[in-house]
Design a protein that fits this description.
With 191 residues, the chain is of the alpha/beta class. The chain has a single domain, classed as Pyruvate-ferredoxin oxidoreductase, PFOR, domain III (Pyruvate-ferredoxin Oxidoreductase, domain 3, 3-Layer(aba) Sandwich). The protein contains eight helices and seven strands; from the N terminus they run βαββββαβααβαααα. Strands 1, 2, 3, 4, 5, 6 and 7 form a seven-stranded mixed sheet that branches. Helix 1 packs parallel to helix 6, helix 5 packs across helix 6 and helix 6 packs across helix 8. The two termini are 31 Å apart.
């Protein structure tokens, strides 16, 4: 059975490293894995989407509407933007940080309020936390991606040591301890 994960965010947030780490981990677990190219405006500030699909045999890297088991979101509005891709029993793992999109910056729109509450009222399982604060606690605001991977790991039957090994394989040595700490903070966060 194929599982589908969408990683959504804003350009410059580290979604590529997150998808690389996830793909690497799943390959080492013996799955057939397809990771898509980034779709959208990947320059800093634009919307970015990466698909990670894994299973016994995966034929396409693309996830259709209503097919995502997980949406991992670097920003609340991005989670809401892609919610139609989530399966009825799927889960959103999101950072509660708000990054204003261009229409909000220019004053043409306002950032929606109470997004997490609105998603939950639709019956969607949402695991939301301030990943930026946890990343800063780990030592760098850039570690939001690894905090999110730590949180996502709670929903997988893969031992923590294997996730940590994937971090070792994908992250430069000088950032290893910081990223391992960010991963642990995300995984162990108590809502």
């Amino acid at each position: 059975m194929t599982k589908n994960i969408m990683i959504v965010g804003v350009g410059g947030q580290g979604s590529l490293l997150a998808s690389k780490l996830l793909g690497h981990l799943l390959l080492t677990e013996g799955y057939d894995v397809k990771v898509s190219e980034v779709h959208g405006m990947s320059q800093r500030g634009g919307s970015v989407v990466t698909y990670v699909r894994f299973g016994e045999k995966v034929y396409s890297p693309i996830i259709d509407r209503g097919q995502a088991d997980y949406i991992v979101s670097f920003e609340k509005l991005e989670a809401a933007r892609y919610v139609e891709y989530l399966k009825p029993d799927g889960r959103i793992v999101t950072n509660t940080q708000e990054i204003d999109p261009m229409p909000v910056i220019t004053g043409a729109a306002q950032y929606p309020t109470d997004l997490v509450d609105k998603l939950e009222k639709l019956g969607i399982a949402v695991d939301a936390m301030d990943c930026l604060a946890l990343a800063e606690q780990a030592g760098s605001p850039k570690a939001v991606n690894i905090v999110l991977m730590g949180r996502l790991s709670k929903y997988f039957d893969i031992p923590v040591e294997k996730w940590e090994k994937a971090i070792e394989d994908c992250v430069p040595a000088k950032f290893l301890e910081l990223n391992k700490k960010a991963f642990a903070l995300g995984r162990d966060y108590a809502a």
